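Suppose you are handed a protein chain with no further information: no name, no annotation, nothing but its sequence. What can you learn? This example shows the usual starting point.
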Amino acid sequence: MRLRSVGGVNENHARLMPSPEWAAHIQEEVLPLATDGVDLGTDVLELGPGPGAATAWLCAREVRLTAVEAEEAAAASLASRFPSVTVRCGDASSLPFPPLSFDTVVTCTMLHHVPTRALQDRVLAEAFRVLRPGGAFLGSDSLPSDGLHQFHEGDVCNPVEPAAFLTRLQTTGFGPVTLRVGHNLIFTALKESS
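A reasonable first move is to predict its three-dimensional structure. Written in structure tokens, the prediction is:
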């Protein structure tokens, strides 16, 4: 049985992503670990914010936040919910910003929605390109499992393998990388100062 797609995601996502439980998971479990010891700086870019669970947490950090969301309806909803955030509808693998524009780039459980490894690598390269030296690329993603693939029935599901992801981040140019693997993958990758 295929699940009906709602705004670019299946019904499972349409129920889970805007839920208070999902927001609590991102805000209480993921972001505190991913940002541990990281100075977010002033200019922060969020990739694939969906309904804004991480956006709300980032707004409370008094940063200048820009969000890039691929789905037009989600981008419009996000802009309405968070008027202080600059929201752009666009593709994270081809960002419309000049090099060295941001102090931090954040993405929470978005990478597995990028359909190919090559496109995921372009997202990593774009995050690296727009980061200033000393900046951090951080966030989380789901781990491969039968349950994850069942949850994504009728939806894109291309999770990253943690060991390969470490190498991919290093190949992109990131220096110190921290991966935390539990029921999900939480990562922090630094762009070393020149």
